[in-house]
Amino acid sequence: MRQKLSDEAKALALATLPNWHLSAERDAIERRLVLKDFSQAFAFMTRVAIAAEQLDHHPEWFNVYRTVDILLSTHDVDGLSDLDIALARRIDAFAADFGL
């Protein structure tokens, strides 16, 4: 069973994820990515979707044209868990592949 991250663990994790920030509305992390165009945004989201399936952990996200907003939180623990951090790291790697 997953456990909610402590405040200290969140701070340590966020120190290694400079493109992410804590959500003002809930115990979650967020990132906005602006890609070249809709096709690139869709390709990026497809890569994230495959990784999410592999982890069995799915983001909340919103896409308009070339912008992708991502929110990560673990519903089972009602907050951040190690799964969110693992998926954020994969998302950051994909973003780097797209030059972000």
TrEMBL record:
Coiled-coil ranges per UniProt: none
Example GO biological process: tetrahydrobiopterin biosynthetic process
Name of this chain's protein: Putative pterin-4-alpha-carbinolamine dehydratase
GO molecular function terms attached to this record: 4-alpha-hydroxytetrahydrobiopterin dehydratase activity
Reaction catalysis annotation: (4aS,6R)-4a-hydroxy-L-erythro-5,6,7,8-tetrahydrobiopterin = (6R)-L-erythro-6,7-dihydrobiopterin + H2O
InterPro entries in the cross-refs: PCD_sf, Pterin_deHydtase
Enzyme class: lyase
EC number: 4.2.1.96
Database matches in HAMAP family: Pterin_4_alpha
PANTHER family linked to this entry: PTERIN-4-ALPHA-CARBINOLAMINE DEHYDRATASE
Protein family membership: Belongs to the pterin-4-alpha-carbinolamine dehydratase family.
NCBIfam families: PRK00823.1-3
